[in-house]
Fold this protein.
Amino acid sequence: MKHGKRKADAFKGAAVELMLASARTQKEIAADIGVDPRTLRRWQRDRERLGPDWIRKLRDDKLVVGRLRRENALLRREVKLMATLTRFSAEGTR
């Protein structure tokens, strides 16, 4: 997957609003502003799904996902440690 430069939130918002207000095609607008038409469409779908405050909601969701991933990693380490301790404890009681 090709990763280009990340666009500023204000740019994304303006691009979607332009697409919603314009009679031009998605492809034309994407070419004019220098983004892939699929990216512009994804931004539009996010706005349709999340409403006018879509950028903040996406950012908040990404923060939550990051926190949950860190928490899951910690829990995995704890489970692994508990399994090791249980194994050593069982071996010591024989």
